[in-house]
Write a structure and sequence with these properties.
heterotrimer, A alpha/beta, B alpha/beta, C alpha/beta, A: alpha/beta, Rossmann fold, nine-stranded mixed beta sheet, 9 helices, about 30% strand, elongated, C: alpha/beta, 4 helices
Chain lengths: ~290, ~290, ~120
């Protein structure tokens, strides 16, 4: 089962929920579940789950994407490569051809269509994938290279790694990036279930509506968790009720939670209320997943 | 024109609330640009009139003419994004996966594939309830190229500053470190990082600072909810000192942030106490640095 | 030596255009022949993206050895740099004539890195 933890607004508590949920599930595996628990941090621009899950590093891999490299010996300066590129990533000058890797989308058109075979794809590092183990929890984190403009290829490759490495009886929790644009789409698009974490404020509600539109467009099963419950107002409750959107959890606004979070500590061992709420959230997810 | 871009790395640090307060303080001499186009929130505090909407097109999507298509399958062979599939004998482009590279259109022997400009969203030039201008945008769901829309918002805002003869351009920047943030900070005179004293806040601030360093822009920092964790506040301050980032202010945790948003007001309008005074002081500090 | 100025007008009395990629036009001065020719940059003014790269390519095609402008972004810089064109920056509110004088006197600074 693949569960994404997403949100519209940033800072609502995705990582808090994802890391606590995955850790708690992994502790329960011996007792109840018979599944392998994996936490994957897909918020590759600012991966934070690793601050709360401190496992032992088992492997680390550099991740790459292909960008063209120019071979000056074969080039006849026909300029066709420039016309093939839809992203302005190729500049043709009187004596040289210049590639802008940060604009390249790795479509391979220029290298495969060049009549003189003067362009070849070469690897450009986009980030690092780290595989950790903490007792019964597997934790995969990917970290985007600073300056690399797009998170999407790294998110895609991380999901491919997870897919290849783990099969069968798994529960995989994916900590997703915030927002509704391409990194989120890439993260969430084939998930079995999406949990949308929001806060009960006007900003939270506004962005939740966008996030709901997004998961609906992707045809995903989803439900809402309200974090920092107690601040703001109850417009999120009202909105979800009116639109028949299930709210599967309400995590209270507590100074103790903020304080533990600030120190990079998980919550469920220290706050029984939170432990129960998280277990409830998971059980609601499994119920809703089975439902049609 | 002085362009001040405010970013956070991590979401939820209070960036938008702080910018709205700065906008209120300087309302007669400022244009605001909301570059957080993915989840734009500034308009919830400034009540813009959405007076001048303009469609924004960026990127392309492939479209296959079923009548002209001969079913040769070459398009599927070349597509690196698995965006083309067949249902019965129909070849279809999945718009969400299509990257808009146009390779399929080039290769199609029947010329059956056209690349269409994508409507990515709308941008607006509005008058706010503070009687100043706000340039903002709404990105369509699942749209890409949000870096381009950010650039468009900035460019329009810069033009407006010149036209209205204002001094300041206040930019609400995007979260993270990717293309939208890069587009947000390009051309800034000064970048303000709003952070919080949590392990995550410190971690994200360091990453976004690395990005700013690559652009060689002067930076300052506001620590919000500073009393939440004194020891991490200190770690942040040590990092700022070593890296020559100006500490602009430390705001204690204050309910006004949430209460003001919930009332649809900026903090300065809502609270007449300590936090407003601190926000005021930090804005004066920023002005002194850029002028 | 061929010098290209980003310009708001079409002759020696025109003002320098501070932008490069979206400059109104370019004036090409050929030192050997003494000729001054204006080239429009209209196609790039409204280009949403890649204006600097395109302008850089166009200017390289004109055979420029030096570009004198207000400011050049990192991608335009890479393009000109790759074509071995030297970049000198100047303030905006002076004429092409004045800019050239200052260049001859060695008063303009050369842009050696992208930032």
């Amino acid at each position: 089962m693949n569960i994404a933890i997403a949100s519209g607004k940033g800072g609502t508590g995705k990582t808090t929920l994802a890391s606590n949920l995955a850790s708690l599930l992994s502790k329960n595996t011996k007792n109840q579940l018979n599944k392998k628990i994996i936490l994957v941090d897909l918020d590759v621009e600012e991966p934070n789950s690793g601050l709360f899950i401190k496992g032992k590093l088992t492997t680390q891999e550099d991740k790459f994407r292909a960008v063209p490299m120019w071979n000056n010996k074969k080039c006849t300066f026909c300029e066709q490569c420039k016309s093939f590129c839809n992203f302005n990533a190729i500049a043709v000058l009187p004596n040289s051809v210049l590639i802008f890797p940060e604009l390249c989308h790795s479509c391979f058109a220029c290298t495969e269509l060049c009549p003189d075979d003067a362009l070849k794809m070469t690897d450009r590092k986009i980030g690092t994938l780290s595989h950790y183990k903490l007792n019964d929890l597997v934790f995969i984190e990917s970290r985007l290279e600073i300056g690399e403009p797009s998170a999407v290829p790294l998110i895609k490759q991380t999901k491919e790694y997870v897919n290849k490495k783990f099969s069968g009886n798994t529960i995989i929790i994916f900590d997703s990036p915030p927002g509704t644009s391409c990194p989120v789409i890439e993260s969430v698009k084939n998930m079995d279930f999406v949990v949308l974490v929001t806060e009960p404020t006007p900003f939270g509600l506004h962005d939740l509506k966008l996030a709901i539109e997004t998961v609906k467009k992707l045809n995903r099963k989803f439900a809402v968790v309200i974090n920092k419950y107690g601040i703001g107002n109850n417009d999120v409750d009202k909105y979800c009720e009116k639109n028949k959107i299930p709210i599967i959890g309400r995590i209270p606004d507590m100074k103790k939670i903020a304080e533990l979070y600030s120190r990079g500590k998980l919550l469920y061992d220290e706050i029984i209320e939170v432990k129960e709420e998280i277990e409830n959230i998971f059980s609601e997810v499994t119920t809703l997943c089975i439902e049609n | 024109m002085k362009e001040i871009v405010i970013i956070s790395g991590k979401g939820g640090t209070g960036k938008t609330s702080i910018i709205a307060s700065f906008a209120w303080l300087e309302r007669n001499d400022v244009v605001v640009a909301d570059c957080d186009v993915d989840a734009a929130n500034m308009h919830l505090l400034l009540n813009p009139d959405f007076d001048y909407p303009e469609d924004f097109y960026s990127g392309q999507k492939a479209n296959i003419d079923q009548i002209a298509c001969s079913g040769c399958g070459k398009c599927i062979d070349v597509c690196r994004f698995d965006a083309i599939s067949t249902i019965n004998t129909n070849y279809n482009v999945n718009e969400i996966d299509c990257e808009g590279c146009g390779y399929c259109a080039i290769i199609c022997p029947e010329k059956a594939i056209k690349m269409n400009e994508t409507l990515s969203g709308k941008f607006y030039i509005s008058q706010t309830r503070l009687k100043n201008s706000l340039v903002h945008a709404r990105l369509k769901i699942a749209a890409d190229n949000s870096g381009k829309l950010v650039t468009k918002v900035k460019n329009e805002a810069q033009k407006l500053v010149k036209k209205e003869n204002k001094t300041y351009l206040l930019v609400d920047g995007a979260p993270g470190i990717g293309c939208t943030v890069i587009a947000s900070i390009t051309g800034a005179n000064f970048v303000v990082i709003v952070t919080e004293p949590t392990i995550a806040g410190l971690h994200d601030m360091k990453r976004v600072h690395q990005l700013i360093q690559n652009f060689k822009i002067k930076a300052g920092c506001i620590i919000n909810k500073a009393d939440l964790n004194i020891s991490i506040s200190k770690k942040i301050k040590d990092y700022l000192k070593i890296n020559n980032i100006k500490l602009l202010a430390e705001f204690p945790y204050d309910n006004s942030f949430t209460e003001a948003i919930t009332s649809g007001k900026t903090i300065i309008e809502y609270d007449k106490g300590e936090i407003s005074a601190l926000i005021n002081q930090s804005w004066e500090k920023i002005k002194k640095i850029v002028l | 030596m061929k010098i290209v100025f980003s310009t708001q007008g079409k002759d020696w009395d025109a003002k320098i255009d501070p932008r490069f990629g979206r400059a109104a036009g370019f004036l090409l001065f050929d030192k050997e022949t003494g000729s001054l020719h204006w080239h429009s940059n209209e196609q790039n003014i409204n280009a949403p993206h890649g204006a600097g790269i395109q302008a850089g390519q166009n200017v390289a095609k004109l055979g420029a050895d030096v570009v004198i402008t207000g400011h050049v972004g990192p991608k335009a810089f890479s393009t000109l740099n790759n074509a071995k064109i030297k970049i000198f920056t100047t303030e905006a509110n002076i004429t092409i004539k004045e800019a050239y004088e200052r260049f001859k006197q060695g008063e303009l600074s050369e842009m050696k890195t992208a930032l």
